[in-house]
Amino acid sequence: MTDLEQALERAASAAAALSRIAPRLRAAALVAAADALDARADELIPVAMRETGLAEPRLRGELRRTTVQLRLFAEVVVDGSYLDVRIDEADPDFVLGPRPDLRRVMEPVGPVLNFAASNFPFAFSVAGGDTAAALAAGCPVVVKAHPGHPELSRRVADAVAAALESAGMPVGTLQLIEGQEDGVTALLDPRVSAAAFTGSTTAGVHLASLAASRPVPIPFYGELGSVNPVFVTPSAAGEADSLAAAFVASVSGSAGQLCTKPGFLFVPEGAGLDAAISRAVSDVPEHRLLHPGIAAGYRARRDAILGAGGVSVIAEGAIRETDDGTYATPTIVRTSLRTLIEERDALLDEAFGPLSIVVEYPDPAALASVARDLFPGNLTATVHLAEGDPEASLPALIDALARTSGRVLVGGWPTGVAVTPAMEHGGPFPATTQGGTSVGTAAIGRFLRGVAYQGVPAALLPPSLRDDNPWRIPQRRTPRGASAAWGTLTGVGTSEVLPETTGVEA
Amino acid sequence: MTDLEQALERAASAAAALSRIAPRLRAAALVAAADALDARADELIPVAMRETGLAEPRLRGELRRTTVQLRLFAEVVVDGSYLDVRIDEADPDFVLGPRPDLRRVMEPVGPVLNFAASNFPFAFSVAGGDTAAALAAGCPVVVKAHPGHPELSRRVADAVAAALESAGMPVGTLQLIEGQEDGVTALLDPRVSAAAFTGSTTAGVHLASLAASRPVPIPFYGELGSVNPVFVTPSAAGEADSLAAAFVASVSGSAGQLCTKPGFLFVPEGAGLDAAISRAVSDVPEHRLLHPGIAAGYRARRDAILGAGGVSVIAEGAIRETDDGTYATPTIVRTSLRTLIEERDALLDEAFGPLSIVVEYPDPAALASVARDLFPGNLTATVHLAEGDPEASLPALIDALARTSGRVLVGGWPTGVAVTPAMEHGGPFPATTQGGTSVGTAAIGRFLRGVAYQGVPAALLPPSLRDDNPWRIPQRRTPRGASAAWGTLTGVGTSEVLPETTGVEA
């Protein structure tokens, strides 16, 4: 048996075992995984620095985000509202005829294959958001390591797998595989029930099409490309120095290798930010790019943008090859809205690295259609406005951005993604392949499927659906007779029964 | 401009307009559509009878189910919990550093293309479950009419479109297109954001692959094939007459042309049901099949099953061709579990029509693995057991059925799908292409996407996310400081704020 075959076999067995483990134990295992990573921070951070070129403060923050994420998902598991429990009481008076007892709960989909990202070696990698969400859902996870940080991936996988097993989770709850070939083989294997991916649009589209073409297709949750436009209204364009400094900081952090890096800054014609941007860029030290593939891709996109007609350079930046990798400083260019439209083939694609395009627009009333036509799918879109901004087209712009992106910001910068219940880190294609957020507690929904139980005696029901509610989770009940009022616009007639704070624990 | 082009253009405009209409108005429009259909029942039922061959009581029941469904979705809209509103208060003490106000709501995906089914000319057609769910979500719907009931489709579309417009919905909220070519063209059109389908596995797989291969892929929610196995434990096999009568009724209702028809009945060896089944079948009158395509498919599947080795006929049934269509009486065959495994290629596929296979099994302990290995994806699975059943393998069987189907029944029969909050009418492939129920209130989730608003002033927020909560919907709030407790397994710290029962109405 190959290592891959063993991993898939173990994942399949773990799926059955894991789904029968009580939520509190699964939650405690997630906390144990977080503790194990925090305890090994001083060992892991230097490995991550060496393999990715990312700076220590960034990596320490990212590891903390990763362990907070595991702890948050532990709370989600205990809370139980993600199970969306619905109980329709048996109803002899049901409007369409007598109806048996019907109960529905979200159950884990089965083994999840997670293609790790290069740019977040902790938070979107072995023990990152997709893994945390899938484990919280009750799914075993097979992570395909990103080749950009293999040693870190193995160490994190060892630490997390050991912590999960010590906490009582089955063997095979978290496993690592390596290499593109094994990743594809696993994606096509019938034992894999869903896949998650963070990476390039090219690779993501290819893998998504493989997932869709299987004899049994599976969902493929890919987070691909995003250019995160930022729109500055005329009344907000005045503070050139602070605007330029914050813009350059957001573009250059982690050498611009973030899914949420602002790739476009729209400013009114004649906003005159060049000098301020140029000054801000001169303060940014060079930063190593993650790996040769990203360096090559960045160089190609940067060449295409610099070579497009009607583009002027504000700060050209440098790209320096060394034995230790490729180093870059930020490149910022300026163009007009008209040129952006004319040169859209050269300019619109994501440039993954420290580059951004300042676009001067003649009239803010045009921005809503710019958003709709040129930026149809993004993770984020941002508007900078002044307090009491008189710009009449703002509501239309916000509306357009909400249709074309997953997160709309007013003020601030899109880099920095909070791990909280209300986060959405997904968006229309190509931001994500089929919707669903990969950050925040709603991410768990991607790895669940609904199952209804009709007329099933309590002894054979999952604990989540029992009237005695041993897991003490929210249950929404539709009482008999509720259907008589449907059509009166008074509500479905379900009521949420919150759990007792004390009681039996399973 | 072609009719199709006009329909797609109208759907795109309607999407923007519809998303700005207050929920109460949208809900009232759904009720108006239901009223319009109820008012035209005496006109519509005869058309449906003529075009489908289905019986009047069945069609009257189905129309009632369809209008109840619209009324239920109106309640879902008013209730607002489907919006899953999450409000994370700005938090200077957030565990990963100060965090702005973040609010998330589910918004409509945009125009939905709904491929109507042949077998439910009301409930899974022009104004059926997919349409009701999509309209409730705030999405305009383009229905591709099923060619089996064109006149009925046009009349229903006219009635519903007029009712929706009279109730203030934009032109293009519900539209009908006809013909396979227009259906495919629409599926590939960039203005369509999601598709729903109920029909054959062959057609569904083809359309799903088209949806996945678009430059911008869209979700394709197909409900395809299901054989709905029923397992009778030894202690429940005693009541031969009542078991046989109920089984035959479930197999032959609507001439077996139901997605939930039990295609397999597992009984203990020597259960001796043949005579009782034969008697029950002899009472079933012949029934017209829906259309020539279904008749041809049924004949082919029936021939394959009758021609397989090791299959004996309990009731052979008849197929009679007339100028008015093809008529059939039920065919029930019997085989052994061993033969079923050996002849799986001939026997396991769905036979859409009044045919079912009785399978004698030697040992109930084998049924869980039978379910997993032979029936990996079904809408339903049923177990018949006696009260206090001593069968030790029952929990394993229920567990296997919950992994391989969307609805697990104990007792009763899978035909007859309640339209309620806890229904799940979906299941692992090929039951559905990518999960998600097409019946019940959870069906709305397929046509929504999450959008987060970060730091957005109240005046620019959607009403659902405002602190003054003008739509009076549930909002889940995470207060500042909640993150300090993450990892203590006391819960996420969000709390549901239910709406005031009186207040401003938007």
Automatic annotation (TrEMBL), chains A, B:
Q: Name one GO molecular function term.
A: oxidoreductase activity, acting on the aldehyde or oxo group of donors, NAD or NADP as acceptor
Q: Supply the Pfam families for this chain.
A: Aldedh
Q: Which InterPro entries match?
A: Ald_DH/histidinol_DH, Ald_DH_C, Ald_DH_N, Aldehyde_DH_dom, Aldehyde_DH_Superfamily, ALDH_KGSADH
Key words, A-Z: Oxidoreductase
Region labeled Disordered — which residues?
Answer: 466-487
Q: Which SUPFAM superfamilies match?
A: ALDH-like
- Which top-rank group of organisms is this from? Bacteria
Name used for this protein in its record: Aldehyde dehydrogenase (NADP(+))
Q: What is the species listed in this Swiss-Prot or TrEMBL entry?
A: Microbacterium paludicola
